[in-house]
Amino acid sequence: MNSNELRRHFLDFFESKGHKIVSSSSLLPTDPSVLFTTAGMQQFSLYLSGKKDVVADFGNRHLASCQKCFRTDDIEEIGDDTHHTFFEMLGNWSIGQDESGYFKEGAIDYALEFLESIGLDKSRMHITVFSGNEIIPKDEEAINLWKQRGITSIKECDQKDNFWGPVSETGPCGPCSEIHYDRGESFGCGRADCGPNCDYCKRYVEIWNLVFMQYFKNEAGEYELLKQTNIDTGIGFERLLSIIQEKNSAYETDLFSDVISKISNKEDEVSCRIIADHIRGIVFLVDAGIIPSNTGQGYILRRLIRRTIRYGKMLELQKDFWIPLVELTIDKYKDVYKEIERKETYEIIKKEEEKFSLTLDRGLKIINSIENDISGKEAFDIYQSYGFPLEMIKEELGKKNLSLDEKEFQEEIKKHQELSRAGAEKKFCGGSNPHLHTATHLLHSALRKVLGEGVQQMGSDINDERLRFDFSFERKLTPEEIKEVEDLINLKIKEGLISKKEVMPLDEALSSGALSFFKERYPEKVSVWTIYNKDSGEIFSKEICGGEHIDDISLLESFKIIKEESSSRGVRRIKAICQGKYTI
Q1: Whether residues 164 and 301 fall in one domain
Q2: Averaged confidence pLDDT in the chain
Q3: Is 45 left (phi over 0), alpha (psi -120 to 50) or beta?
Q4: Which of 174, 217, 277, 421 could be 213's S-S partner, Cβ–Cβ 3.0 to 4.6 Å?
């Protein structure tokens, strides 16, 4: 099977078993505590916890999907046999149980039937199961089910490897069975104890994780039996594809082979893989509506584009080498994810390439003037001033047999991040003015109601006279839209809404629907500000925020937008005042 055939076969298989096929959710998650969607189960989390009714929303408690995912933790590892930025997850779910539901037995049967349907040999499958601990018993039920189906290689593993769920938080959790596939002796280490989870080789590859959600970890750290049990499974699509095509890595499958062959540099296979991975990641980040910037999701996109260009220069590829690679990548996925756009991808990469070329030229002049080893602080200044990646600083210094203090460089990075975080907290928490800070919450909510929920805050600045609010939106607002936003806010001011502050656990705040102003790592407990009508109880705005606000919204008197303009590509900026209280 090629990649399209495998993906289609998985969905067709589970549809034939009565599952509803659910489209992939966006790479941009609804949970503001994470940058990207990293797993297929994220869009179903509220259903798995029982907070939403899966049958009411999907008409079925059995679901299957192929989910777009993106992870940033291992960018430096890209180029080996297993790591990718963008990837896809295949999964099937049975959420809650009634006479139509299935649990461990059904999940195991479906998994074995599907894997055998794509030609995998059951005798080469090895299963790991939860070995139990002093609190939760061994998963004897799963062990017996696997044995009854002819699986003889079953390894018992501890909670770290075979128990899925929150480590410190509360929530649904449970033991899991992982299916590992033996790729053969040629991939092995030769050790007598070699097997699944071997630390010395890649002979046994985990291809499917079956999670049996049957417990709930409460705030006291105790594990209770769940009232609603769930099946949550996940297959790494790229990993499975490499196995059925008998390749060492997904980079050798049809997902990447044509792109890598187009780069055609056999002397530096790792750099070719990095470019191929990053091109695919760029296409899907742009498709999600992300634009290059210096923070958050935009920073990841900028980093991928610049790393791609950097590795292209290292391989001495011709100018605009990335254009046919983008073309190939889009052609490969256009029938699967029909929303992929070509023109905008080219424009964004081209613009970022032009910016990066300027910084490279300026940075090279600085580095060429260096005659001795440099400190981490000096390297950080080059990085900060010219956008010169650490890898390129090291490479250019190496040409002159010079080096830098990398440990000190990382310390400077950490200090910079801490200062940036402190500055963001000061900026976003309102500093000098609770009246205008409250007004930013009204503005954020009004924009989402008038322009759509795709609007997200991208920045904010408040002083004694006015507020400035940056938000994601692709075009200039019409005069009618500006007036509609103003009118809505002024209506709420006249209604005499009130605001209240509640302190609660982060997961509770997010599940309650509270928005966040910016994506930071929050403490375990956060402040949630809700602006609502005290008579009807209707909520107008609800956000996680560490700043202070006024209690009585009528004190704002009236709201006036004085300017609407572009801040950067895909980001608009509004400046506004509260008339009668402040002047510009």
Answers
A1: no
A2: 87
A3: alpha
A4: 174
Whole-number pLDDT of residue 519: 46
Predicted confidence band of residue 3 (pLDDT cuts 50, 70, 90): very high
Asked if residues 201 and 189 have their Cβ atoms less than 8 Å apart, the reply is yes
DSSP string, 320-334: TTHHHHHHHHHHHHT
CA distance 394 to 409: 11
Which residues lie closer than 8 Å to 116 by C-beta, 6 or more apart?
122
Q: Give the full edge-to-edge strand order of the sheet including 559-568.
A: 457-462, 467-472, 571-578, 559-568
Residue 314 is which amino acid? M
**pLDDT band at 427; cut points 50, 70, 90:** very low
Counting the structural domains of the chain, the total is 4
Instruction: Give percent of the chain above pLDDT 70.
Output: 92
Same domain, 150 and 57: yes
H-helix or E-strand spanning residue 243: helix 237-244
Collapsed DSSP state (helix, strand, coil) of residue 536: coil
Domain end (from 385, 409, 426): 426
Question: 387 lies in which domain range?
Answer: 370-426
Residue 436 and residue 573 in one domain = yes
> Between the CA of residue 376 and those of 210, 262, 412, what are the distances in Å?
46, 38, 7
310, two tokens: 């950097």
More confident position, 54 or 459? 54
pLDDT(75) > 90: no
CATH number at residue 569: 3.30.980.10
Choice between 178 and 291, residue whose per-residue pLDDT is larger: 178
Residue 52 and residue 197 in one domain: yes
pLDDT in tens, 475-532: 889 999 999 999 999 999 998 899 998 888 888 888 888 887 554 456 778 889 999 9
Q: Are 98 and 231 found together in one domain? A: yes
pLDDT of amino acid 8: 97
Q: Is residue 258 part of a domain?
A: no
Q: What are phi and psi of 214, to 5 degrees?
A: -135, 0
Here the tokens at position 73 are 């933790």
CA distance 191 to 392: 40
Q: Give the pTM.
A: 0.70
Can you tell me the distance from the alpha carbon of 223 to that of 219, in angstroms, rounded to the nearest whole number? 10
Burial class (CB in 10 A: 0-12, 13-18, 19+), 502: middle
The verdict on 550 and 460 lying in the same domain is yes
Output the CA torsion sign for 507, 512, 513, 518.
negative
Q: Which residues pair with 566 in a beta bridge?
A: 572
Q: Is the pLDDT of residue 267 over 80?
A: no
Among 386, 401, 426, the domain-final residue is 426
- What is the full DSSP assignment across 465-519? S-EEEEEE-SSPPPHHHHHHHHHHHHHHHHTT-EEEEEEEEHHHHHHTT-EESS-
* CB neighbour list of residue 530: distance below 8 Å, 6 or more residues apart: 499, 500, 502, 539, 541, 542
